[in-house]
Amino acid sequence: MIDFISEAVIMMKAGKEIRQIFIEARLFTKKPLRNYLEEIVNEMKINVSFEKALDHFLELCKLKETELMVSAIKIHKKTGGNLIYIFENLINTLQYNLNIKSQIRTQTAQSRFSGNIISIFPIAGFLIMCLFFSNPLSGYFDSRAGSIIISIGALLEICGFFAIRRLLREGIY
Length: 173
Hints:
Structural class: mainly alpha
Strand content: under 5%
Oligomer: single chain
Number of helices: 9
Helix content: over 70%
């Protein structure tokens, strides 16, 4: 999205209007953004209003960056102003956010790796106990209560692992 907005700024400085930018942007953008741009261009070809096409573009894309860009375009259409300046500030903000996320990911890499190792310890410990202490553990496997407890423990371990993965994926990254 940053590349698209950067190219839009260059095109606006060259004198193109925003509708023309969306039409020409299909040539240099990559998928999936290209598909979304083709949708908005097709809607403009069948005389759907530009604002409705932008709303549909926003629904398809579902990115915060897209929401900011579409809001800036809509506000510019209603009130005027310097859209180039707004887009340049938007680019700077998005690049800054990207750099911050990258720094956070780099700085937390060791902690994430340690978390993965620690989450493997219960499984590894259980497997080692099964290999070396199979006689005492056979009572757990033979009884119904022991099998249920081991199954619940394994299920909770797996749920915890995936919950932590999901939190890390949705949280910062």
